[in-house]
Amino acid sequence: MDDLDEKLITLLRHNGRRSLTDLALETGASRATVRARLEKLERDGTILGYTVILRADTLDLAVRGVMMIAIEGHVTDRVIRALSGIAEISAIHTTNGRFDLIVELGARSLTDFDTILHRIRLIAGIVNSETHIILSTPRSTRARL
């Protein structure tokens, strides 16, 4: 991946609906070059798809946080399946170190957030967790909201 590919990806992260013409103007590349690069990035699996971020996804979940989860034994796949069924969880990451998973989650209120944490802690195989509430997001590559 070169500088042009990285610039295209950055621009699309902020607005996945930008036209080829806009991308070409912003990068200084020709429209044909931009189209070819995007097709290549899609073909090789670098770009998996495009999505829409709804205002409700950011505003209705006034309380957001990350939860680090420690799992006992070899039940990680089962725990991930259980976590995947919780709508308030937006992402599940595997990690190394003291914890096995990092989960991103959100709720409309602290009471709802606490209820979700309680549900998660009851999942068989989870032996420890640590949760941090996100106060603000000064920078994100996911979207410019």
Give an overview of the whole structure.
- This protein is α+β, with helices and mostly antiparallel strands and 145 residues long.
- The chain is 41% helix and 21% strand.
- It folds into 2 domains: 3-43, Orthogonal Bundle (Arc Repressor Mutant, subunit A), CATH 1.10.10; 55-134, Alpha-Beta Plaits (2-Layer Sandwich).
- The chain contains 6 helices and 4 strands, in the order H-H-H-H-E-H-E-E-H-E.
- It has a 4-stranded antiparallel beta sheet with strand order 2-3-1-4.
- Helix 2 (20-27) crosses helix 3.
- The radius of gyration is 19 Å and the shape is elongated.
What topology does this entry show?
Layout: H1 3-14, H2 20-27, H3 31-43, H4 55-59, E1 63-71, H5 76-84, E2 89-94, E3 101-107, H6 110-121, E4 126-134
Antiparallel strand pairs: 1-3, 1-4, 2-3
Summarize the structure.
The protein is α+β, with helices and mostly antiparallel strands. It has six helices and four strands, in the order ααααβαββαβ.
Major beta-sheet overview: 4 strands, antiparallel
The best one-word shape is elongated
Beta strand count: 4
Number of domains: 2
Task: Find the CATH topology of the largest domain.
Answer: Alpha-Beta Plaits
CATH class of the largest domain: Alpha Beta
Encode the helix/strand succession as letters: HHHHEHEEHE
Residues in helices, as a percent range: 40-55%
Structural class: alpha+beta
Give the second-level CATH assignment, the architecture of the largest domain: 2-Layer Sandwich
Give the strand content: 15-25%
Pick out the low-confidence regions: none
Determine Rg (CA atoms, Å).
Answer: 19 Å
Distance between the termini: 27 Å
Order the strands across the largest sheet as they lie in space: 2-3-1-4
Q: Round the mean pLDDT to the nearest integer and report it.
A: 89
Kindly report the name of the CATH homologous superfamily of the largest domain: Lrp/AsnC effector binding domain/regulation of amino acid metabolism (RAM) domain
